[in-house]
Amino acid sequence: MEDSAPPPHLLIVDDDARLRGLLGKYLADQGFRVSTAGDAAEAERQIDAIAFDLLVLDVMMPGEDGIAFTRRLKADDMPPILLLTARGGPDDRIAGLEAGADDYLPKPFEPRELVLRIRTILRRQSAAPAQAAAENAVQLGAWRLDLNRGELRRGGEVVRLTSGELTLMRLLAERAGEPISREELAQATGQAQERTIDVQVTRLRRKIEDDPRAPHHLQTVRGKGYVLWLS
Asked: For position 85, what pLDDT does the model report?
């Protein structure tokens, strides 16, 4: 009989030792493997040694803050990131998502909600290869998007998408040429706010468009939402 897959391994990064301990115990009780770090430098040492499935990262830390750390990690194709912060305003959330975070949860939060968000992100990650089986790649001008790997390729250049960006692109590609409302996209991707879709679209345009301010592929249809044109 084959052994079951090991549980997801999480890294909690927070300078509050008490919160680290409480979160670590709670998440371990929920069936996750858990490691912890007190700041970005300690987290980076662990990331170099261990392949984590997801990072739970505090924004307000001494030294390199969570937003800057997220931006740097995502440039190197790191695992999904869920940001935690006491600053829960819309602008703070948008800043986190623009940095490449997959989700953002303001403090104080209900631990059960944290678990649900973690599982949602992990489920999106694991479901991506199966969902892409029917159509592995789409062409976007000079870019070719591999829907299995979540990679944009143009010659030797490779750009990676976050799990949220890949989920959004998959939905748009499945209905290419058809406008999809922000509300429907938010519901389908598990986002609580439609503005999150706007942020992801802005990030995607920076990756796939020659001129993000005058998009050719990922366009806004006034009063209807967004549409993806393949070529």
From this structure: 85
